[in-house]
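Recap from last week: sequence in, structure out.
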Amino acid sequence: MVSPSSRRMIGNVRSFVGNSLGGLRGWSNLASWAVAGTLAYFLWVKPARELKAEQDTGLIYGKRTETKKPQN
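Predicted structure tokens:
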């Protein structure tokens, strides 16, 4: 059996966590995190990955592949 003081402490922890996440609970909380995650992906993660891919393939910054010069 859980003591009343333990119950109060658990309630306080749940309240703190809920308030630190913006006070939203349930589906609205899940929806807001989904929107934030989607925005973060398209604004930061995807552009960083595309930049890295373009740097590796030499599409930007004037990076060229080495060509062999004929030796005379």
